[in-house]
Design goal:
The complex is a heterodimer of chains A (about 475) and B (about 210).
Chain A: H1 2-18, H2 28-45, H3 60-86, H4 93-111, H5 115-133, H6 139-172, H7 181-187, H8 193-211, H9 220-226, H10 229-256, H11 261-282, H12 288-309, H13 312-342, H14 353-356, H15 358-371, H16 378-392, H17 396-422, H18 438-456, H19 460-471
Chain B: H1 3-21, H2 25-46, H3 51-77, H4 90-111, H5 123-140, H6 144-162, H7 171-199
Helix pairs in contact in B: 1-2, 1-4, 1-5, 2-3, 2-6, 3-7, 4-5, 5-6
The chains are: A mainly alpha (about 475), B mainly alpha (about 210).
C-alpha cells in the first residue's frame, strides 16, 4: 500500500512528460492528487499493519505529515489547472513533473525509518523543486534559483556528514553499524556523547537549512518571492515541513540517549533566533511574497522552540505540522492570485484587492489571520499549547519572548496585508486580465475551511493521531 | 588500511590545493574528476573485495570521473567568457587558506575520540581538510562553475569520511546519493547556462537584484 503512495505520483510525472499538449497536461495533477489523497486517507484510517518493515514504517508522525502534504498538493493541483491556463505561453511540462516527483519524495520521507533513505528523499525534494523556482525565466528568478540550489545542496551535504557521524558513533561504541531508527534508539544510551552531539549539530544545520531556520534562511525570501504561488505553497507548506520531519527523526534518537539538555538548548536557541530574525524583517516588508517567506522562517522557528520545550508543546508541534502547511497553502495561492491581478507583488502597487479580486483579497486576509494564530483557526490551538508549555514547564522567559516576537510579527504582517487587501486601488496601473475563477479561489478556500473546522472541533481519530505522534517525541522512561 | 591508500589520500590533499590555486576552470574540472576517481578506487583498497564494494566503486568512478566532468564541460562550453575573475582573497590567499585548513584538520583530528583501529589513519584528517577546502572555494569563488567545483570538493570530503563506514551504508542509499549528486550537477549546469545568458557572465557577485531594501 505504502509503495503505491510513491508510485502513483511517479507514474503521474511520467504521464505528464508524455502528454504533448500544454493545455491538457495540467489535468494530470488533480487526478494524481485525488488518487493519492484517497489512498492516504485509506491508509491512515486502516488499522496498523502487523508485519512491520524495518525500513518503511508509517508511524503517527508520518501519517500526520502525509495527510497534510496530500491535502496541500490536492489544493495546488486543482489550482494549477487554472493558473497554468493563464500562463499558456510557458511550457509547463517541467512544472507538472517536478510537482509530482516532489510529492513522491515527500511521501517516501513520511514513511522511512532509515536515516540514509530519509536523507535521500529530502534531497530529492530539493532537486525536484529547483527548476520550478525558475518557472518565470527572468534574471531575478535565476538568481533565486541559484541561491536556493547552492545553499540547500551544501546544507543537505552537511546533513549527510551528520548521518555519517551518527553511523560512526556506533562503530566507536563497538556496536553493529546501523542507520535504522529503532536500533539506533536502542543504542542511544551507549553511543559516545561527542559523536552523537556532532551528528545532531550537523543534522540540525543541514535540515535547518532545508527548513529555513535563521541564520540559514537566506535563500528563502528569494526563492519564495520569485517562485509562482503554487510552487511557493509547496515549498513553504511541504518542503519546509519535510525538513522538520528529518529533524524530528534525529531528535528521537537523541532523546533516547537520556541527557537531552544540550539538544533542547540548541533547538530553543536556533528557534528563538529564527523568531527574532523573522520579526525584524517582517516589519516594513513591502513585498508580500517575501513577507510570506519570513513568516515561514517564523513558524519553522516555532517548530524548533516546541521541540526544545518538550512536554505539552509537542502536542502543539504536531498540530502545527498541519496548521502551518495548510495556512501557507492558503496564503501563497491567494498571493499568487493578487500578484496576477496587479502584475506586482509590492504593497505600494498592489492595493485594494477587495475591489479588484474580492475573493482572493478576502482569502489573503483570512489566511493572514489563520497564520498568525487568531481563533478559531487551528494555529491558535498549537500556539496556545506552546505558551502553556513555556509558562508551566519552567521557561517563563521563553514564554515572554514568544509573546513579544509573535506580536511584532503579527503587526509587521498586518502593515503589509492590510493595504494590499483594503487600500485604494492605484489609478495609474492598467487592469490585468486576471479574474477570480472557481479553480483559483476554491482550493485555498477549501484549505481555509479545514483550518477553521479543525481549529474548533478536532475529530476523535485525528486527536488520537496527534497525541500518538506527540507521544513518540516524549522522553523515553 | 594499506599505506598505499594513505598515499592516495595525500594526493587528494594536493589536488585540493591545486584546485584552490588554479585560475583555469578546465584544469579545476579535470582535477576534481581525478580526485573523484582516486576516491572511487579507495573502497577496493581498504576492504576485502566483494560484489557490493565493486559495484560502489564502479558507480563512483563513472559518476565522478565521467558523468559529472562531462556535465561541467558541457556547461562551460556553452558560455564564452574570457574575463578572469580572481576570487576574494586572491589565488595565493586561497592556497594559504587551504594549507592552514589542512594543518588545522590534522591537529583537530588528532584530538577526536576515534575508534582504536582508526587512530593512525589519514582518513579523518583528509576528510576534514577536503571539506574545509570545499568551503573555502564555495565562499571565495565568484564564478558559478567554480562554486560548483567547491561543492564537489565538499562532497568528496564527506565521501572520504564515509570510507570508514562502507559496511554501514546500504548499496541502495549509496547509489541513490550518487544519482542525486549527478542530478544536482545537471540542474546546476543548466542554471549556469541560464546565468550566462541572462547576465552575460557567470559572475555570481553581480547577482544583487534580490536584496532587502532599506
Amino acid at each position: 500500500m505504502f509503495t503505491l503512495l510513491v508510485l502513483i505520483p511517479v507514474a503521474g510525472a511520467l504521464i505528464a512528460w508524455l502528454i504533448p499538449s500544454n493545455v491538457k497536461r495540467p489535468w494530470v495533477m488533480p487526478v494524481t492528487a485525488c488518487l493519492h489523497l484517497a489512498l492516504v486517507v485509506a491508509i491512515v484510517a486502516a488499522p496498523p499493519l502487523q508485519s512491520r518493515n524495518e525500513w518503511i514504517d508509517l508511524d503517527a508522525i508520518g501519517k500526520l505529515f502525509l495527510l497534510e502534504v496530500s491535502a496541500l498538493f490536492a489544493a495546488c493541483a486543482f489550482y494549477s489547472v487554472s493558473y497554468l491556463h493563464y500562463r499558456r505561453e510557458r511550457n509547463n511540462r517541467v512544472l507538472c513533473m517536478g510537482m509530482q516527483v516532489c510529492l513522491a519524495a515527500m511521501s517516501l520521507a513520511a514513511g522511512v525509518h532509515h536515516m540514509g533513505l530519509l536523507w535521500l528523499a529530502i534531497e530529492t525534494t530539493t532537486l525536484s523543486m529547483a527548476p520550478l523556482v525558475y518557472f518565470n525565466r527572468n534574471a531575478r528568478s535565476i538568481e533565486a534559483t541559484w541561491k536556493y540550489m547552492l545553499i540547500c545542496s551544501v546544507g543537505i551535504a552537511l546533513a549527510l556528514l551528520g548521518i555519517f557521524f551518527l553511523a560512526y558513533s556506533t562503530v566507536v561504541a563497538g556496536l553493529p553499524p546501523s542507520l535504522l531508527l529503532e536500533p539506533l534508539q536502542g543504542y542511544a544510551p551507549r553511543l559516545p556523547a561527542g559523536w552523537l552531539d556532532a551528528a545532531f549539530v550537523f543534522l540540525l544545520v543541514g535540515y535547518g537549512t532545508k527548513m529555513g531556520l535563521a541564520p540559514l534562511h537566506t535563500w528563502k525570501p528569494d526563492a519564495y518571492g520569485e517562485a509562482p504561488g503554487l510552487v511557493g505553497a509547496m515549498l513553504a507548506g511541504g518542503l519546509a515541513n519535510c525538513g522538520f520531519i528529518g529533524l524530528i527523526r534525529i531528535y528521537q534518537i537523541c532523546l533516547s540517549s537520556g541527557d537531552v539538555h544540550f539538544y533542547r538548548a540548541a533547538l530553543l536557541g536556533i528557534g528563538l533566533l529564527s523568531l527574532f530574525t523573522a520579526a525584524a524583517f517582517l516589519v516594513h516588508q513591502t513585498d508580500f511574497k517575501r513577507m510570506l517567506a519570513y513568516s515561514s522562517v517564523e513558524h519553522m522557528g516555532l517548530f524548533a522552540v516546541a521541540l526544545g520545550l518538550g512536554g505539552k508543546a509537542l502536542y502543539g508541534a504536531m498540530l502545527h505540522l498541519i496548521g502551518n502547511g495548510l495556512a501557507k497553502g492558503v496564503l501563497f495561492l491567494a498571493a499568487g492570485n493578487i500578484h496576477r491581478a496587479f502584475a506586482s507583488k509590492n504593497r505600494d502597487s498592489a492595493r485594494g484587492t477587495l475591489r479588484r479580486a474580492p475573493w482572493s483579497g478576502a482569502l489573503f486576509l483570512a489566511g493572514f489571520l489563520a497564520m498568525t494564530g487568531s481563533p478559531p483557526f487551528l494555529i491558535f490551538s498549537s500556539e496556545y499549547s506552546f505558551f502553556v508549555a513555556a509558562f508551566t514547564q519552567g521557561y517563563p522567559l521563553v514564554g515572554w519572548l514568544l509573546a513579544v516576537l509573535l506580536m511584532v510579527a503579527f503587526l509587521g504582517m498586518a502593515m503589509t496585508v492590510l493595504p494590499v487587501v483594503f487600500g485604494e486601488p492605484p489609478r495609474n496601473r492598467e487592469r490585468t486580465k486576471y479574474r477570480d475563477t472557481p479553480l483559483l479561489v476554491g482550493p485555498p478556500l477549501a484549505l481555509l475551511t479545514i483550518l477553521g473546522v479543525v481549529g474548533v472541533w478536532l475529530p476523535q481519530p485525528l486527536y488520537r493521531l496527534v497525541n500518538a505522534a506527540a507521544a513518540l517525541l516524549e522522553v523515553a522512561r | 588500511m594499506s599505506s598505499f591508500a594513505d598515499q592516495l589520500l595525500v594526493l587528494v590533499l594536493l589536488i585540493n590545493i591545486l584546485i584552490l590555486g588554479t585560475h583555469r576552470a578546465r584544469v579545476a574540472i579535470r582535477a576534481i574528476a581525478v580526485q573523484g576517481v582516486v576516491l572511487g578506487m579507495m573502497p577496493l583498497l581498504i576492504h576485502p573485495v566483494q560484489g557490493h564494494i565493486l559495484l560502489i566503486t564502479l558507480f563512483v568512478v563513472l559518476a565522478k570521473g565521467v558523468c559529472i566532468p562531462w556535465l561541467l564541460f558541457g556547461a562551460l562550453s556553452k558560455i564564452e567568457f574570457s574575463e578572469d575573475l580572481p576570487p576574494f582573497l586572491g589565488y595565493a590567499g586561497n592556497v594559504i587558506a587551504g594549507a592552514v585548513a589542512t594543518v588545522m584538520a590534522f591537529v583537530f583530528a588528532a584530538r577526536l575520540p576515534l575508534a582504536p583501529h582508526h587512530q593512525e589513519l589519514l582518513t579523518v584528517p583528509a576528510a576534514l581538510a577536503t571539506i574545509l577546502a570545499g568551503f573555502i572555494a564555495l565562499a571565495s569563488r565568484r564564478k558559478a562553475i567554480n562554486q560548483v567545483i567547491g561543492y564537489l570538493m565538499l562532497e568528496n570530503g564527506i565521501f572520504i569520511f564515509g570510507l570508514l563506514l562502507t559496511e554501514a551504508m546500504p548499496l541502495m542509499v549509496e547509489a541513490g546519493a550518487l544519482l542525486d549528486l549527478i542530478a544536482g550537477i545537471f540542474v546546476m549546469g543548466i542554471i549556469i547556462n541560464q546565468i550566462g545568458r541572462e547576465f552575460s557572465s557567470i559572475d555570481t557577485s553581480r547577482m544583487t537584484a534580490l536584496r532587502e531594501e532599506e
